[in-house]
Automatic annotation (TrEMBL):
Name of the protein in its database record: TECT2 protein
A GO cellular-component term linked to this record: MKS complex
Tectonic-1-3 domain residues: 241-384, 398-581
Organism listed in the record: Herpetotheres cachinnans (Laughing falcon)
Family to which this protein belongs: Belongs to the tectonic family.
Pfam families: DUF1619_N (PF25752), TCTN_DUF1619 (PF07773)
Amino acid sequence: MSGPRVNLFFLGNSSGVNFSIILSPIDEETGKLQLANCSGSKRAGDWNLNVTPGMNASKVTISLTRNLQLCLPNATDCCTTPLCVVETLQVLACRDSVMLARLLIQAEIYANSSFTGNVSENATVIPNQVFQPLGSCPCDLTAGACDVRCCCDPECTPDLKQLFNGSCFTGVFGGDVNPPFDQLCSSRSMEYTPDWFPFLCVQSSLNNTPFLGYFYHGSISTPKVPSFKIPLQTSPGKLFTGYRQGDPIMTEENEYFTIPQQSMAGQCVGNAPVAYLQNFDVKCLTNLASYKEGLPHDVRINSGIGDFIQQNVIYRTITDMGKFITESESRHTAEVLCQNITVAEHYTFICKDKNIERVNVTVFLGSLCDGETLTQRFTVKFLSLKSTNSAELFGNPGYQVGKPVRAANMNASDTFGSLNIWQPAGRGLCASATYTPVLFGLDSLSGCILEVGINEDCSLLRGNVTEKLNSLIQATHIGKRDNSSYGDLNDWVEIIRLDPFNSDTNVSTGSLKGICPDIPANLNIRIIFADVGAVQGIPQQQILAVQISYSTVIWQFQCGLICENSISFLPITASVQFLKVPAQPPIPMTRFQLNYTEFDCNRNDVCWPQLFYPLTRFYTGEPYSQCLAKGLSLAFLVLLAAIMSNPWFSKLWNSSLV
């Protein structure tokens, strides 16, 4: 325990049970605790024991009665060292001299540095800090106790100051309330003291310092508490002129249309709004105790122009729930409680421009019993009313971050392709790894482990690794946009493939087994994209080029003392990198910019184009009025010098003297 009080609980009937506490010093010779007996009492040294009986449990409270304040000079009944209490206690529960339970407590309690004494009722006269410092030690914030790092605190003893002597507070807060200022004649803090300094310096006492009132003038700003309430639309039936991408879909009751979705933490949120033109496919775990029904399917949805659409719902029943149950506890059949629940919901929004035309919903129903864990699935897909192919997405002509990159295999009859990376499972072996699509805008790195024997042929190993890597890319072209048409070749960019280096020729591995050079173990996918425009204020991103390359490694068999009949592992990886480039090449530099670099403010300390910068509003080093006055004075001096240098001025001056 590290505090002056601890609570314990004795489970069971406490009638006739005698609780006691004893101090158990450690035997210096054996290093063991002394044997305890039931002859103790409810008080031992500075410790008290209190018992609060209950029905099936009794509360036992152990409390320390001594003062934990650190000793001040000439003080008693206090802690002489910061580690105030180091004792070993034993709490015993006995009945008829028979020990029922015993608990060992090791107490290490440090002294309390906070002030717990009586506060004086006398009012403290606070001086006017415009004319004299508020206090000689501003960091002395705790009365009657030493403040850490406050070396001017009179309550800090020399022993305590040694703990933080090297890190004391500096400046006014650390007690230097009257520091010498630069204008003082006795101060030589300036690095370069001008020659005229002795004529313009100030001879004054440190009590009359410009730092007086340093904390005086201030302003109190009212904190602005941010509102976390989601602004709802307030005029149902006539509020919309159409949805934009990312807008929440509204219902007839002017509320958000919600479907369970995953949050940033990976948990499922039941009341998450559905955003327009943003597809998702989520899976949520639930059981019978935490299951909640979502929005009823008779809720009508705002189409975007004030009309309301009824959902077209199709119900289907799942008889085999084995594919959806992830966990099940074995219970007796007579005690199991079951309930009809929703297993999956698939929403399809048919859209036209900014409006929703139809909403088709397929609901799968099943039975969930107590003790079972169900995997629910919710999908939302937006389709165009003009699209004849239901698999072709609608809406944003550009890519959205986090959406799969579209691929096509133009050399096959079925042009649908895929661009994937690995999603290892279990031991991370390539044989059991699954695929996950490449998501736009998200750099990723994945891999798996290939089992290789010591007698593996290097040529076969290179071919096997290359085949594993090429299985990730079942495509010849990548879609420029998210809605690229499979029938239009201009909507696709061809994948640039840099074949791996073939080391079958001119490579001698010698007679060593288990060493193969130039293994293409790393697949590098680089996707170049750019912002090519905006639709309704949303940037449209388009893929410009895709390049695939390989990095080779030298594989060497790793084994212990015995290498025969053993297997080594070869990790192979696939990385995806998205590179953003300007949609148009930058404007080339002119010949003047290349030759006359002395006018370039970024390359030279002297910037002639910014000669009059101090006279503009952009200069904030001094008040604008001072800059303007200095500029006018400088202009007057220049004009005066120009007049005096003129020949007629000298003639006029000489004639006036005659």
